[in-house]
Design goal:
With about 475 residues, the protein is of the alpha/beta class. It is about 35% helix and about 20% strand. The protein has helices spanning about 25-35, 45-60, 70-75, 90-100, 105-115, 125-140, 200-215, 230, 285-300, 305-315, 340-350, 370-380, 390-400, 415-425, 445-465; strands spanning about 15-20, 40-45, 65, 80, 105, 120, 145-150, 165-170, 185-190, 220-225, 240-245, 255-260, 260-265, 270-275, 325-330, 330-335, 355-360, 380-385, 405-410, 430-435.
């Protein structure tokens, strides 16, 4: 949180501008208008692109300034709230901050006002799965918990239901850490790897991630991924207690590690087996790491070992994250639309022993493609490219120089890609949407892309079911 401390600022009768009418913008507009602020919501999208959210804002009686972020609507405010993802170098935001207008965020305001203890989880990958699994661990322990943050849930509406004994577990993105000056009681950084380099320099991105532990106080607990070099380097920045997590068989201090295929916790006097890795239903070593991270975080929050083990055994995963969609003609289809970086697509490929037909494409994030290209060309039966970045990925694939197994095909759209994948796949294969790019060339977010993929696959499954053996399936296009 920047500017004056929030508990010293009364928003009643103040001109307050909220920049960005997403989930956060609606949440902020509702909170501020109920407290007597004169609220303006500024968003560069036209009304027709905002649909229901614009209607919600209208119902609150706030002023909407849509279609562009006009500097006057922002710089002339007495207080400014910037939604995550909105660039802080936006002209109006820059001018307001230069003129000393207090500038805040939903996350910062929630952390300031929340009456109960907060756990925050960030990382370049794995944070949603880890956050929701921690929530399941609390539930298995029959302890009150609120799960929020970057999981599609506004925070401020929930303040009235959070009691001093209620834990809040937040998934926190790097952009939600731009405007905070406090850290959660338990703060976890899973990993820090190159991401969002189309918007931030590597140094800026790393600094934002570390904000989650920067303001911790004595008595707080940090949880860090020992297998990640960037996280290991943060040890000197930890203010008090530190828990590591690792897929290795030991640690230099407290934390969760693996011994004889069991997750083991060591935390002060506690040393106990938690769960066998084989009980985890999710595919891939990266999900094993997520489970260990969740166990470390839950332990730091006081969740019992039995509840941790129970949650791991029953947790079925999160949509769009190596989500099994359907089996059609002995071909299994998986939706990994969340994989918006080459690193995450690599993890997706490596989660399967079966031959893979891989769907790559979308909008480029200016991240290195060499390792993904080498793995895909070597391990996949076919790679189907679609969207804005198809040409760039094709160049990377053809430049690998290694032994090539994969067929490379290039199409325009996701439906065409699914159609092409169906014709390339053989019985026993996996068709995997793990795009390595954002969805913004064609979809509002990775969720919409994943939902469309799911619909297309379900159409294929129906066609296979209703097509006689030997008949050709019709195209999806």
């Amino acid at each position: 949180m920047t500017g004056e401390h929030l508990d010293e600022l009364n928003f009643a009768d103040k001109r307050v501008t909220v920049v960005g009418l997403g989930i956060e913008g609606v949440d902020l507009a509702r909170y501020l208008s109920r407290r007597g602020a004169f609220v303006t919501v500024s968003d560069s999208k036209p009304r027709e692109k905002l649909a229901q959210r614009a209607d919600e804002a209208d119902a609150l009686g706030v002023r909407l300034a849509l279609g562009s972020n006009r500097p006057g609507d922002i710089a002339e405010a007495e207080a400014l709230f910037v939604s995550q993802g909105v660039p802080l170098d936006l002209p109006g935001v820059q001018t307001a901050r230069q003129h000393g207008v207090p500038t805040y965020s939903m996350t910062g305001l929630f952390m300031e006002l929340c009456s109960g203890p907060i756990c925050g989880i960030t990382g370049s990958s794995g944070k949603t799965t880890t956050t929701l699994l921690v929530g399941e661990m609390f539930a298995a322990d029959e302890r009150p918990v609120f799960i929020g943050g970057n999981v599609g849930i506004g925070l401020l509406d929930q303040l009235s239901s959070v009691r001093p004994y209620t834990w809040t577990v937040l998934e926190v993105s790097h952009t939600q850490l731009q405007l905070v000056d406090r850290s959660p009681h338990v703060a976890a950084i899973l990993n820090i790897t190159p991401n969002h380099l189309d918007r931030f320099s590597w140094d800026e991105y790393r600094r934002l991630k570390t904000n989650i532990i920067r303001y911790q106080q004595p008595g707080d607990i940090a949880v860090l991924g020992y297998d990640d070099a960037e996280c290991r380097a943060l040890e000197p920045a930890v203010k008090d207690r530190l828990l590591w997590f690792t897929l290795g068989d030991d640690l230099p201090g407290d934390g969760v590690f693996v011994r004889d295929d069991w997750a083991v916790i060591r935390f002060g006097r506690l040393k106990e087996k938690l769960f066998p890795l084989g009980t985890l239903r999710l595919r891939g070593r990266h999900n094993q790491a997520n489970a260990l991270a969740a166990a470390a975080v839950a332990t730091a929050c006081g969740v019992s070992p039995d509840a941790i083990a129970c949650a791991v055994e029953t947790f079925r995963g999160v949509p769009h994250r190596l989500e099994f969609v359907a089996r059609a003609g002995r071909i299994a289809y998986y939706n990994d639309s969340i994989a918006t970086t080459p690193e995450r697509a690599l993890a997706g490929i490596r989660s399967f022993d079966e031959p893979v037909v891989l769907l790559l494409g979308g909008r480029d994030k200016q991240l290195p493609l060499e390792e993904l290209a080498a793995e895909a060309i070597k391990r996949c039966r076919a790679v189907i490219l679609f969207g804005e970045s198809a040409g760039k990925i094709e160049q990377a694939l053809r430049a690998t120089g290694g032994p090539a197994q994969a067929t490379i095909r290039r199409v325009e759209t996701l439906p065409e890609a699914v159609d092409a994948a169906r014709t390339e796949a053989l019985p026993g294969d996996v068709v995997l949407l793990s795009p390595a790019c954002t969805s913004y060339d064609a979809y509002e977010g990775f969720e919409r892309r994943g939902e469309h993929f799911r619909t297309l696959v379900q159409e294929i499954a129906k066609l296979v079911l209703n097509t006689a053996e030997g008949e050709q399936l019709p195209s999806l296009r």
